[in-house]
Amino acid sequence: MKRLSRELPRFALYGDNAPIDNAEFVHVELIETRSLLHDRYIVPHMHRGLFQLLIMLDGHVSAHIDNMQWECEAASALAIPPGTIHTLRFSETAKGYALWMNWNLVESVDLFVPLFERARVLRLQDNPEVQARLTALLEQLVIEARGPRYGRALLAEWLGRSVLLLLVRLETERRVADEAGRAEFDLFSRFRALLEEHYREQWQVGQYAEVLEASSARLNRACQQIAGKSAFEMTQDRLMLQACRTLIHIPTSVANVGEELGFHDPAYFSRLFRKRMGVTPKEFRDRALSGTERGGSMASGQPDTVE
């Protein structure tokens, strides 16, 4: 009896045995188009050096992956590592995108690798914003696939990486929510949204807590648990982030930068900026505009944001 691995088709794509020469290969197809060619059933096979994503927007797919059965309902994403034996059966209503990416592209960014450590399903139905953004990116990839155009490979790589990053962010936020508790993660998320609306007004933590119908202590606990810093530190970081952006991109005085952020005393604004950023606002602007900050201490010292 022959070994199974010798009998299995090793597809570059569904049913395609052509070699892949492009080291930065990215390919996308509509699920409803490709699956119909195979009567909605893809025989057991594996992909050579390709990471695969199935983005299900409608219907469902039954996937048998390395002796495990997966039922993937829309809207969701099914991640399949390379070299994994799998069978796919799509429903008649199945719609979405099949995306393949070369090993080199995924492995080049450590952030992406955990997404494909094993087969997994990521739920999209609970996050319509991410679903809409993924759909827009994948539709752009479909447009690029229609024919050769200048810079096509590079643009396809950027779009593919953007898809992966959105999914990594989604999975990270799910993990954080599981660890911190869904209620605490929801409080933290609402705080971040409220902070974006009112950071220029320099609300106190108590004001945020009151609007969020939570105590200041609980809000601080949620921020410490998820972001590793207090709610007050997050408000200060947001102010400094905007200050840095304004100093670099808007030709106005340091005093005006502080004034727009609610600092009516220019000296106090400069002292606070230096305390948190390590340099004065003028020094920060001069270094950034001269190009010395690219990859340097200012880039790494800029306030963190939790994605």
UniProtKB/TrEMBL annotation:
Domain HTH araC/xylS-type, first and last residues per copy: 189-287
Matching InterPro entries: AraC-bd, Homeodomain-like_sf, HTH-like, HTH_AraC, RmlC-like_jellyroll, Tscrpt_reg_AraC-type_HTH
Single GO MF descriptor: sequence-specific DNA binding
Stored SMART domains: HTH_ARAC
UniProt-listed PANTHER family: ARAC-FAMILY TRANSCRIPTIONAL REGULATOR, TRANSCRIPTIONAL REGULATORY PROTEIN
Record key words, sorted: Activator, DNA-binding, Transcription, Transcription regulation
Organism placement in taxonomy: Bacteria, Pseudomonadati, Pseudomonadota, Betaproteobacteria, Burkholderiales
Name this polypeptide is given: AraC family transcriptional activator of pobA
Renumbered residue ranges of the record's region Disordered: 285-307
